[in-house]
Amino acid sequence: MAHQISCEDAGMDCAFVVQSESDDELVEMALLHGENQHNVEMSEADVRELIKPAG
Ligand SMILES: [Zn+2]
Questions:
Q1: Which Pfam family, an example, fits this chain (predicted)?
Q2: How far does the centroid of ligand 1 lie from the alpha carbon of residue 24, in Å?
Q3: How far is the CA of 35 from the centre of ligand 1 (A)?
C-alpha cells in the first residue's frame, strides 16, 4: 500500500504532500523538502512518525 507524508502534519502551513510505495523514499523526499523549502532539518525518526496511508 502506498503511504504519504503531508507537510501540514508537520505543523507547516504548506500543501506539500509526497506519496510513495517506499517508506525510505518518502522519508528522503520529506527531509529534502524540509531543508529546501523551510530550512528545517528534521531527524529521520521524526519524519517517519508522519507517515500515514495514502488517500
Ligand atoms: Zn512544506
A1: DUF1059
A2: 18
A3: 9
Q: Which helix (H) or strand (E) is 5 found in, with range? A: strand 3-6
Ligand 1: centre distance to CA 1 (Å):
23
Q: Where are the domains of the chain?
A: 3-53
Joined together, the cell numbers standing for residue 11 give: 505543523
Confidence of residue 6 (pLDDT cuts 50, 70, 90): very high
The amino acid sitting at 26 is L
Task: Give the Å distance between the CA of 36 and the centre of ligand 1.
Answer: 9
